[in-house]
Amino acid sequence: MHPYSNLMKPLKIGTLTLKNRMLSSPTSQAGFDAAEHYTDEAIDYYRLKAAGGCSLVTVGDVIVDGSTGRSHPQQACIDDPELIPYLVKLAEAIHSGGAAASVQIDHGGSLCVPQFIGGKNPIGPSRQMSQWGFETEGMTIEQIESIAEAFGKAAKTVKFCGYDMVMIHCGHGWLLHQFLSPLTNKRNDEFGGSLENRLRFPLMVIDKVRQAVGNDFPIDVRISGSERVEGGYDIDTGIEIAKKLAEKVDFIHVSAGTNGDDYSRILTHPGMYQKHGENAYLAREIKKHIDIPICTVGAFSEPQKMEAFLAEGGADCIAMGRALIADPFLPKKVMRNKVEEINHCIRCSECLSGLMKNRRMHCTVNPIIGRECDFFNPIPVRKKRKVLIAGGGPGGMEAAITASEKGHEVVLCEASDRLGGALRFADHADFKADMKQYRDSQIAKVNSRPIKILLNTKVDKTIIAQEKPDVLIIAVGARAIMPSIQGLAEALGRGNVLLGADISDDKIVGDKVVIIGGGLIGCETGIHLGRLEYDTTVIEMGSELATDCGIMHRLNLLHQIEVCEKLKTFCEHMCIEVTERGVYAKRKDGKVELFEADTIVLAAGMIADTDAVDKLRELIPEYYVIGDAARAGKVGNATSDAYCAAINMGLF
Q: How far is the C-alpha of 173 from the C-alpha of 178, rounded, in Å?
């Protein structure tokens, strides 16, 4: 028997049979041209998921009424007739990869932004101020009926364009969810008050969709099984919602949370501080009460855990979002029982944060995301090279792997006794388990390829003369910034003053820890030590914490700081002196405070090691500087730089 036999079983949804039980969850998409139509990269983004082996690919965030329903710019409007040929091409691309195709239709309601709806106020169940600070107009009966008709027309277009199913978005705080939620539905007519009344509009929408597509076209509905926020509905109400919807649809997709609350929004997309399958319990409970297929979603990426959850009857199938961004071929690796080759998602949510920040999706661990056309139209290797890589951190390992796959001869040199570089911190913090798994997986990939590995080896003239490379990739990482603080230089000679990048539990002295620097490294170190019951204090000179962090991960991190009882943070405090007693810091008002410390951790940031880089530049004419060696940043910068360097060196 196949070790993942439950994941491999076909699944019947209405008139449609899916080939397995691994589905691609809808995600926002940044690949739009100036006319807000899908680009070739956007189409290949979905095509790649289908080619990876999942049974159903759902196109995300398609708005039924562009004049009132857009909440952000990564949304196509299906009432735009010019979009139709692009939707057809997108369906064909998904089918060409061997998957069934669906479209998620939606309306942003009160979470819309006037900028994207012609400057008008958003509409929603009730008149109120939205989370984004815009006045929301309560919908009239005529508007309710009009939007329900728009959902029906949208579904008809989905079917016309060649898709196999349609998903109605009824969760996550968007319009239909707003009618279901007591947090946002304050109406006193037949569409508000009791749950029966709050369900009236979503059920009206489903009826219009059914009329438009007929009985032979499956309807999927995505719900939040619980809002997971104070004052919102809980799983008991989620069960009642699902029972009513199940009378009219073929499939229910159980998620969680609402965009109306920051931490609830994090729980919709569980990060590294939450457990795998964070919201799976919601699907398990709902499945006990209805007979149609149930899908679960939310930080699933481990095939063993997915298989076990299906085996125990927790759901009928599992949808993955970020896991299939990190590795679109996860399903095929499951099919072929090659799960050790999976490129695991580290749940950093840089994909989501990038969309919010600059409308570009990238992945920390998968540099092909954003470059999907390169996958289907590979850049040719015109010249095989011998490449020597200085540095075995995330950038150096990715460069070695990609260069080897392109047929180049690779020598990887690492100055220490093991690969991993800055990812070594993952050994110590429990919330970095996914990062540790990614690091160890990269090391295994390096070891499994024809790559010559030289540990305890610094690149110098002797190594260059010995190996005679054509190309040098410089991935030597960054060094800690040493701020001008009185007494710091002398304190570094004592055993109780540590660098944040090198922190490990066995180096902590005493019970009180002060961390100088409230960036990502300082805050994550503080959370880790606070969870270990050290009295931990983070001192930051700026007005905010973790400003070097992605939007979604920062929301999660700030919440973890808030709930960590042993961790205190102080912003707008300038560290001025380090002594044996601790750290003196000047407040914004000029007063000086002593923060007593047994151990002091320096986490004032990192800077590219330009001295090391400059010495290496002199060794060979053709070189590439990547990752932290070029500019101190994130792992994603290193893997992206590595991919580009490995591609570029073979062009001529």
A: 6
Rounded to whole angstroms, the Cα distance separating 26 from 174 reads: 15
Residue closest to 405 by CA, chosen among 646, 627, 626, 641:
646
Helices (H), 406-451: 433-448
Q: Residues 74, 28: contact at Cβ < 8 Å?
A: yes
**Could you read off the pLDDT of 583-628 as tens digits, one per residue?**
999 999 999 999 999 999 999 988 998 999 999 999 999 999 999 9
Residues 6+ apart with CB under 8 A from 624: 471, 472, 473, 474, 641, 645, 648, 649
3-state secondary structure 148-210: HHHHHHHHHHHHHCCCCEEEEEECECCHHHHHHCCCCCCCCCCCCCCHHHHCHHHHHHHHHHH
Query: Tokens 């929004």 identify what position?
Result: 265
* Beta-carbon contacts of residue 612 (< 8 Å; ≥ 6 apart): 476, 629
- Element holding 76 (H helix, E strand): strand 76-77
**DSSP secondary structure letters along 454-475:** ESS----HHHHHHH--SEEEE-
- Rounded to whole angstroms, how far apart are CA atoms 515 and 498? 9
Q: Hey, which residues does 573 pair with through a beta bridge?
A: 587
Assigned token pair, 22: 């691994």
CA geometry: angle at 49 spanning 438 and 17, to 5°? 125
Alpha-carbon separation of residue 486 from 538, 578, 605 (angstroms)? 18, 6, 18
CB 189 within 8 A of CB 138: no
Spatial neighbors of 323 by CB under 8 A, at least 6 apart, are 300, 301, 330, 344, 345
The model's pLDDT over 238-279, given as tens digits with 9 standing for 90+, comes to: 999 999 999 999 999 999 999 888 899 999 999 999 999 999
Over residues 17-45, the mean pLDDT reads 89
Quote the CA–CA distance of 428 and 439 in Å, as a whole number: 13
Residue found by looking up tokens 């570029």 in the block: 648
Q: Residue 414, by phi and psi: left (phi above 0), alpha (psi -120 to 50) or beta? A: beta
Closest by Cα among 632, 636, 556 to 362: 636
Three state DSSP letters for 243-259:
HHHHCCCCEEEEECCEC
Distance CA 138, CA 121 (A): 10
Query: What whole-number distance in Å separates Cα of residue 420 and Cα of residue 417?
Result: 10
Q: What pLDDT, on a 0 to 100 scale, did the predictor assign at position 30? A: 67
Q: What does the pLDDT read at residue 633?
A: 81
One-letter amino acid identity for 590?
G
Owner of token pair 């701020």: 483
DSSP string, 32-45: B-TTS-B-HHHHHH
623 forms beta bridges with 472
